[in-house]
Structure prediction request, 337 residues.
Amino acid sequence: MNMFHKTLACAAVLLALTGTARAEGLPGDGRTIRYAQDSSLGGNYVVAQIVSDAFKALGYKVKLVTLDNTLFFPAVAQRDMDIGTDITLPQREPGFRAVAKDAELVGEGMIIGGGINGYLIDKKTALANNITTLEQLKDPKVAALFGSSGKAELTSCDPAWSCGKVIDYQMKAFELTGTVRQVRGKYEALMADVVTKVKGGKPVFFYAWSPSWVTNALVPGSDVLWLPTPKDALPPDIPNDGSALVKDVEGCAGDANPCRMAMGSWNYHTVANKQFLADNPAIRQLMQQVHFPTAVWSQWEAAIGKEGGSPEMIRKLADQWIGANQAQFDQWIAAAK
Prediction:
């Protein structure tokens, strides 16, 4: 073999080795991830796009499905779904516990520091009637300010959402069932009406959380106020992750500090099938790194509240974040590989 042919042979070997190294460097080669996002629209949808891109960078194909958390748990246990990254805890703790033999938590939550949730009323009505606590709605005269039927109309969670279970429990625990009536439907549509009412100077009473598009459209302290609850109260099967007393809550009625919220800190958590994680250690490594500052979530939620949450708009927000944080994104991928 002359030198020319030897050179060609060496080049062919090197090319083959490089190709093999490249294939070995993509843990998801030939695999598809069945990835669930909850039916509740928010910054979690932006995260689903960013995480999908990370999965693809690791070589996986991604099948993203919108699925309510209630249905996700049996699906992930049975391996009809592999992973979800917007499981709200502690609200969804009972559902997770039921499948903990087959599924597990990965990482410490998507929102650094977690979020808050509770009851709010419009600031105009609160100041005009000196309303500083949720307990005051036990008074029929106060309750009547927020409804046309003699009862306060509380814009509540979707029927399938776990926060509805919390609200049901607390209405009884706080002795408000006689003066408060819950209004339930598609939360996003109901809250769009609430926003319109506040902008029109009308009284509102609703349940919400932060960060969310709602608390960006109706800013606590400016448009609405959080109403401190009278005591910690959660259903027995939902753990309170610390006290519901939260320091430095912006827009807490009566300037209460700490402000007693509906519960302690909540977060979007990643839940995955145990066997899936065992077969895909790169996914565990990836998801242990992925989380975002509260300020970033607030920006996403504000954009969604202002412009709507079309797939194109969600994709745009994801692309903007990756573009501005390419080094961090690349670091996630490198560590996962």
